């Protein structure tokens, strides 16, 4: 229960949302309570927890859902957004000359990650030197030297020496011409005063700009106290979460960054030297929530928002009684996009589909044909298709490489849509229904706007 508690309880929150039959104020408030509990249990600072949950509540109850999004998806997106914001604590490691010190408990992945960072920086064209300051494990220096050899980076160490701060001091001198110096320190089974004292002394000698806490993603809730102790000793500036290739989703990292106010800079995603991934808050939260495709979904949904302008244009035309072929095309495109969106939504457990009233696939197919036909029309024809007579239909069909029947289909569809638009424009209830489908363009306020023009 302690391990991965956060990810699990967050997934439960979303699961509850997914199963709900209606999303009302009551549910949003309850979800926020669950969310609060989950974050507090993960040691997230009370003030931040309240900030996150207040934002979720405020936005869920006041922001209208975006284009083509149901209330459930809207609230899911808001929770996701706010969690992303919570872990988005700053930029990654800078590509400039600097000294980096690795700290962490035994076996968390410090030495391996030192090698990965060496490769990362040298691939970026910076010269790198590694200092082996783990004087307790005899094999530690050999391990670092092997990694150094693998990536073609020099390693400084003093076999048999036990004065770690002294080694680091001489190592710094040895590497004074290197742009990046990374210091690998020793770990312990548990936090002990002498370990803390040693890394404190090393930090004093090396004055590293970055003090990176290396955390095994499996540590779960223990991450908080560990991070705090290291932070008190050397002031942790960044966190690297390792073994993210395993089953852990890294929820503990949230408590670690809360305790240190540091940012996560990289994820270790395997034992191989190349298995280092730049930290991406969106991807991290998607993974934590068990929503592999959510960031793709969110990207797609933002494209959708770009179409808002086009949609408003359609709505404006409609209100003025000028619903032309281009408008219809936009309208159909919006529908087909919602169709794509729906496919992705279906991949996400607990997230409802957008709408089941529209035959998306057929719409998409038809759209392709319509587009070709419209490309063979003049703009006057697209503006007012009623001027298209039978001779012209044949010519358009020829130009588009389709049958005259296809062109007539398009015109028929247009006539239907145009008729529907007219009645929608008149009927308040239908207008609402239509707006729901079109993604929330507020026709009434548009009308007012036009009235005031
Ligand atoms: N799967 C996986 N294994 C990793 C990752 N990072 C490190 N390891 C493995 O974890 C084990 C410990 O890694 P080390 O780099 O030796 O850890 P350390 O913190 O230096 O350990 P000490 O020096 O003994 O304190 C090794 O077997 C690594 O191969 C990772 O991102 N994924
Ligand atoms: Mg080590």
Give an account of the 3D structure:
It is a single chain. With 453 residues, the protein is of the alpha/beta class. It has 3 domains: 5-87, Four Helix Bundle (Hemerythrin (Met), subunit A) (Up-down Bundle), CATH 1.20.120.140; 98-278, Rossmann fold; 307-452, Signal recognition particle, SRP54 subunit, M-domain (434 Repressor (Amino-terminal Domain), Orthogonal Bundle), CATH 1.10.260. 60% of the residues lie in helices and 9% in strands. The protein is built from 20 helices and 8 strands. It has helices at residues 5-19, 25-41, 46-62, 71-87, 110-123, 140-151, 164-174, 193-206, 223-234, 252-260, 281-288, 294-306, 308-319, 325-347, 360-375, 379-383, 390-400, 404-426, 428-438, 443-452, and strands at residues 98-103, 128-133, 154-156, 180-185, 210-216, 238-242, 263-268, 276-278. Strands 3-2-4-1-5-6-7-8 form an 8-stranded mixed sheet, sandwiched between helices. β7 and β8 form a beta hairpin. α13 packs across α14 (325-347) and α15 (360-375) crosses α17 (390-400). The protein starts with a helix and ends with a helix. 42% of the residues are buried. Mean pLDDT is 80; it is low at 292-306, 339-358 and 437-453. Magnesium ion is lined by residues 110-111, 134, 140, 184.
